[in-house]
Specification:
20% of the residues lie in helices and 34% in strands. It has 152 residues and is of the alpha+beta class. A 6-stranded antiparallel β-sheet has the order 1-2-3-4-8-7, with helices on one face. A 4-stranded antiparallel β-sheet has the order 6-5-9-10, covered by helices on one side. The two termini are 25 Å apart.
Length: 152
């Protein structure tokens, strides 16, 4: 899943030069399987959500290089209580893949901000991401039907 996200991100990032205030929605079809994919890109390019019919992955960019490949993280939406999430780390990103649960997705959709603390020896600060506009993008093009939860 992480390799799919990286390949898709590299091609898409090269094609964008200016981002507006809305989340961008990019559609792609796998030429070998005809599987449709939807990529949601936050206005600041800090969050990427990749949805396929049976999977979803959320990547957070701009983090320091991780010393572990699967560090745990704490997440907090707005002023709610924080909770643990599991994911995988790359060179400068952290990905939460198909093990996402309803609590996490619901938090992303109903909140304005998200605080992420990846528990790694190289990560000693919080990373704040804006979620403003995500619920609007998901209403326009819902993707999480089978992946995690369908809200619209």
């Amino acid at each position: 899943m992480i390799k799919q996200i990286l390949v898709l991100l590299s091609g898409i990032l090269a094609s964008f030069s200016i981002f507006g205030s809305d989340w961008n929605i990019v559609y792609q079809t796998d030429q070998m399987t005809d599987e449709k994919k939807i990529l949601y890109i936050s206005p600041d390019r800090g969050i990427f959500i990749l949805c396929t019919p049976n999977n979803a992955g959320i990547s957070f960019l701009g983090l320091p290089k991780m010393s572990q490949s699967t560090p745990k993280a704490l997440v907090r939406f707005d002023k709610e209580k924080s909770f643990d999430v599991n994911g995988a780390a790359g060179k400068d990103f952290y990905t939460i893949a198909s093990s996402l649960d309803k609590k996490f997705i619901d938090g992303m959709i109903r909140s304005n901000s998200m605080l992420l603390d990846v528990k790694d020896t190289n990560s000693n600060q919080y990373y704040k991401f804006s979620l403003i506009g995500l619920s609007k993008a998901l209403k326009k093009e819902p993707c999480l039907k089978k992946s995690i939860v369908y809200l619209y």
